[in-house]
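User: I'm curious whether this sequence folds into something compact or stays loose and floppy. Could you predict its structure so I can see for myself?
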Amino acid sequence: MSIKVLVVDDSALIREVLSRMLEQEHDLTVVGVAADPIEAREKIKALNPDVVTLDIEMPNMNGLAFLDRLMRLRPTPVVMVSTLTTRGASETMLALELGAVDFVAKPNVKLAGGLEAFGAHLRDKIRAAASANVAGQALRQKVPKVPLKTAAAPAGAVIALGASTGGVEAILQVLGDLPADCPPVVIAQHMPLAFTGRFAARLDQLVEIKVVEAEDRLLLAAGHAYVARGDHHLRIERSAGQLKCRLSQDELVSGHRPSVDVLFESVAKTAGPMAVGAILTGMGRDGARGLGLMRAAGAFTVGQSEASALVYGMPRVAFEEGAVVEQAPIEAVAGRLVAALLRLRTAA
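Assistant: Here's the prediction. I'll summarize afterward.
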């Protein structure tokens, strides 16, 4: 059955480009276009699209204001089409917090050679969005937060997190629940280079621990989280008794750079049973192999539960392949990781 898409953008050229790109494949149908949120609101009611693509800067109503209203009144999978600017990256982070499933960088229509790759990327994002549990996320009950008092662990302990589609909110939840004395946290989130710095900065504003974009050879410190830089793999290594970040741009792994598999494999090798890890919402299978290596090395591993995942793809594969010790709803993931860290401290 074809996925019905509504394209919302104030540029007639962008509407035409996106429509043409989407309709190259038989499983996607553009049922309508809209030049602003007011028109979009009426077409959503009339056409009932499966997915909406949404620009941020539009006349009559800002895209973020429209998204906020849409998610409250009629939760619908939305893919943001964002500009590759500092402001665009910041607004995209806010859109993901408001409930957008994912985003793509707006194409440069003058670069014909890049449009084919953009189209394939866009179609993949639309398909993932169509399967996202947006309505389920909107209906989830907020669980009263019980602060975790400590996550102190022996030297050499590491927390590793991996996510893709829906990961912005999932990672925010886990980091927000971790106490300030937690071991260093290393994070691989599928995200382009222009956005990871803003992602780290936004997390840093919202959580108690310090969050930065990873830099090559940066030493890992307790109470800090390190986000893999877009278009770079993040690994950890031990040198002179200290753990540090290593960045590289070697080939894609599991179709991604940064790759969750790459990060998790390095954590398994470097930290072994001193690590804990969680694989969170996302499309595909990146991270399952690496999490399996972590578990085999003695690490405690968690997979986000199906009911709480926006896209239960990566956690499903990891669970089915035996890489996950335990599945948990997103609001309980930090607690499971902290309990495992406290067992490490007791055993030390």
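Summary: The chain has a mean pLDDT of 92. The longest strand covers residues 28-34.
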